[in-house]
Each structure stands twice: as C-alpha cells, then as structure tokens.
C-alpha cells in the first residue's frame, strides 16, 4: 500500500503545489477497485449438502462521493455515500458435487467520517480517518450448481441493512492548474458490525421439494483502493501560469534602521496561502542572484500576515511563508547556512488596518541581504 501511494504522488509531480492543510468546506469523489475476501456460508442445518462453504470473488468496482469541512488544526469531518461490488467466482468446500456458483454481492450506504491531515512540510498531505454509518448488503441472482442442476436462491431478492465501520489511509496532492483542487489516493477497510447477516432462501431437493430456510454469510468486510479528486471551495480560480499583480510601492522607512532598498526584497502572498506565485518566484530568484554579486554574510527571511484570522494561526502561517521563500532560495543556489528564518505573524503591518481586514500589502515575506 505504501508503494502504491508513493507511485500515485510521483506520477503528478509536474503539477504539484505547496501542500497545505484542508480548511473550509469541500467535496470529493473517488473510484477504484473492491477486493472482496472469501466469505464463509453457514446454512441452516437442514441444508446438509451446502453448509459451511466458502465463496470466492473476483475484484469489483468501488466508488464514493462526500461533502465535508476542514479545520485549521488538521481535523476534517465529512459525510459520504458509497458503493462497492464483487462478482461471485466460485464455491469451495468438502462436497465435490458443488461445481459452480454465480451472483453479485453489492454494498451501498452512507458513512460519517472523522479524518486528520498531517502537514509535515512535504508537497503532499497524508491523512488517516475512521467512520461509522450504515450499509445495505445485497446478493443479486445468487445460484449454486450441482451435477445436472442449477438452483437459484431467494437471497437475490433481498437487501440486508446493518451498521458499518471503516478505516481510511490516504494522501492528497494539490494541483496548480486549478486552485483548490487536489488529487487523492485512498485505501479503505469497510466492515459490518454484524458479521453474519442472514438472508432468507429456499432449499431445493432433487425430488423437486422446496423448503424455506435461511443462510448467513460471515467475513462481511472488504478492501478498496480508490483514486479521485477533492475540491476546496472559496479558493479562487487562477489559470496555470497566470502572473500575480505587481507588488505595491516600497513602504515609508520605519523609525528603526532598515537595509538599503536595493538589498531588500518583498514577496507577496494570496490570502491564507503560503505557496509562491510565478511573480513571487521571480523576485526570490532575483534576490538569490543579488546575493552572489554583493558581499553577503547572511539573509534574513521574515514572514508576515494581515490582521484576518487568529493571532496563533497567523503566527504559524507567517513561518510557513518564510519557509516557502527559504526553500526557493536554496533551490536557486543560496546556501542554507546563510538563511535565517523568522515569523512575525500579524505584527509589524506595512499598512495599519482594523482586525479582520485582508490587506494584501501585509501578506508578505521580506528578504534582507546583510
């Protein structure tokens, strides 16, 4: 599973963006394969020729759609509608007269999930989750065969509903060509709380008599692997490569001494974002080149935010912005040892505003060459 997730993320490296924890409402969809383990059959004792067998399955389809909300601390809550299926491959047991079997097993229902995103500074976000809900289990067109006979069962006409649980392991990779869109890859384990849901059926004898009875299926769980997309609302719709607006004029010098304007560079950010725009990368590259032409002993990389949001969240956001710029400087050839990273949160705004105001000039990182 670990290799699968790594391969999925590497496949879309050319369109990666700075990974950030999901915040706000979102929707997601996914589709993939369902791997159904063998199921044991515990028939009524009066069906002596078909008790305690094992049904095998071919892989089938799996899909889900969900709506949720992400919080700034990495926690997410969502509700989903899901479906998976598996086609009967055969029946095994100690009775050689059982030659064949057919039918389709389907699960569908809704789940409430609690998930957590791990923002570990990588270009993707791993996450885990657990869920509770309800699932309907349906056996469609089930039949078994013996020499010369093929007996349908009444189970194909019924759906058994029960409480369900699931575990989720996944990874989300932001895509730059559509702001707010992420590629997702997930593994899910889904099981029913009642391990032996009962179906009504009919026992057919070779003399033509029919006896009403019941059948229970054990091992009612499944493994699914799905690929999909998640879209976060209210993130804007920039096109790929669209440059950001030019930076505002240089601010009036503060009372404390500041470096010469030619040795100070400002990088600006979109609201609640720490990834670099095309224009921002150009400014960082210009600063990196300048550091090789003048005598520079160290570079200060100071991050700031506007006054919207809480002070604690803004402090962390300012550090992430400074780290994004520092990473780009290293990529442009600046030694890591020469870079000093600081985050000042919403303090020292260029443009004083009231709390809650989204002022673009305050969402910045200062690169100062010493």
Topology:
Layout (H helix, E strand, L loop, with lengths): L1 H9 L13 E12 L3 E5 L9 E6 L1 E11 L4 E18 L7 E18 L7 E22 L2 E4 L6 E16 L6 E12 L5 E7 L5 E8 L3 E12 L31 E5 L9 H16 L5 E5 L7 H21 L7 E5 L20 E6 L1
Parallel strand pairs: 15-16
Antiparallel strand pairs: 1-4, 1-13, 2-3, 2-12, 3-5, 4-5, 5-6, 6-7, 7-8, 7-9, 9-10, 10-13, 11-12, 14-17, 15-17
CATH topology description of the largest domain: Porin
- Please trace the helix and strand order, writing H or E for each element: HEEEEEEEEEEEEEEHEHEE
**Sheet with most strands:** 8 strands, antiparallel, barrel
State the share of residues found in helices, binned by percent.
10-25%
Main sheet: which strands, in order across?
A: 1-4-5-6-7-9-10-13
What would the principal axes of the Cα set say about the shape?
elongated
Indicate the CATH class of the largest domain. Mainly Beta
Structure description:
The protein is mainly beta and 370 residues long. It has 2 domains: 2-232, Porin (Beta Barrel); 261-369, OmpA-like domain (60s Ribosomal Protein L30, Chain: A), CATH 3.30.1330. The chain has 3 helices and 17 strands. Strands 1-4-5-6-7-9-10-13 form an 8-stranded antiparallel barrel. The protein has a 4-stranded mixed β-sheet with strand order 14-17-15-16. A hairpin with a 2-residue loop joins strand 7 (125-146) and strand 8. Helix 2 (278-293) crosses helix 3 (311-331).
List its traits.
4-stranded mixed beta sheet; 370 residues; disordered N terminus; Porin; mainly beta; 3 helices; 60s Ribosomal Protein L30, Chain: A
């Amino acid at each position: 599973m670990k290799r699968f997730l790594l391969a999925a993320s590497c496949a879309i490296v050319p369109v990666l963006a700075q990974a950030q924890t999901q915040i706000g409402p979102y929707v997601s969809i996914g589709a993939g394969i369902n791997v159904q383990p063998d199921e044991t059959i515990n028939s009524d004792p009066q069906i002596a020729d078909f008790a305690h067998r094992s049904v095998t399955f071919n892989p089938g389809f799996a899909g889900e759609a969900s709506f949720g909300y992400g919080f700034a601390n990495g926690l997410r809550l969502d509700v989903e509608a899901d479906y998976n299926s598996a086609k009967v491959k055969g029946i095994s047991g100690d009775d050689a007269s059982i030659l064949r079997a057919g039918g389709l097993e389907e699960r569908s229902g809704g789940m409430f999930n609690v998930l957590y995103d791990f923002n570990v500074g990588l270009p993707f976000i791993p996450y885990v989750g657990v869920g509770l809900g309800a699932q309907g289990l349906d056996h469609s067109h089930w039949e078994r065969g013996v020499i010369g006979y093929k007996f349908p069962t009444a189970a194909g006409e019924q759906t058994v509903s029960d409480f369900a649980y699931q575990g989720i392991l996944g990874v989300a990779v932001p895509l730059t060509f559509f702001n707010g869109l992420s590629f997702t890859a997930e593994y899910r384990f889904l099981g029913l709380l009642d391990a032996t849901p009962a179906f009504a059926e009919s026992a057919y004898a070779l003399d033509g008599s029919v006896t009403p009875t019941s059948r229970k299926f054990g091992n009612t769980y499944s493994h699914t692997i799905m690929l999909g997309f998640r879209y976060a609302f209210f993130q804007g719709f920039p096109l790929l490569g669209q440059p950001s607006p030019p930076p505002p004029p240089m601010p009036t010098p503060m009372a404390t001494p500041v470096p010469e304007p030619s040795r100070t560079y400002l990088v600006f950010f979109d609201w609640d974002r720490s990834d670099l725009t095309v224009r921002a990368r150009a400014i960082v590259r210009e600063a990196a080149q300048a550091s090789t032409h003048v005598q520079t002993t160290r570079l200060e990389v100071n991050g700031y935010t506007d006054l919207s949001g809480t002070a604690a969240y803004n402090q962390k956001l300012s550090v992430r912005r400074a780290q994004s710029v520092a990473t780009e400087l290293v990529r442009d050839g600046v030694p890591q040892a020469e870079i000093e990273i600081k985050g000042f949160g919403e303090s020292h705004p260029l443009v004083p505003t009231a709390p809650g105001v989204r002022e673009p000039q305050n969402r910045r990182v200062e690169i100062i060459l010493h």
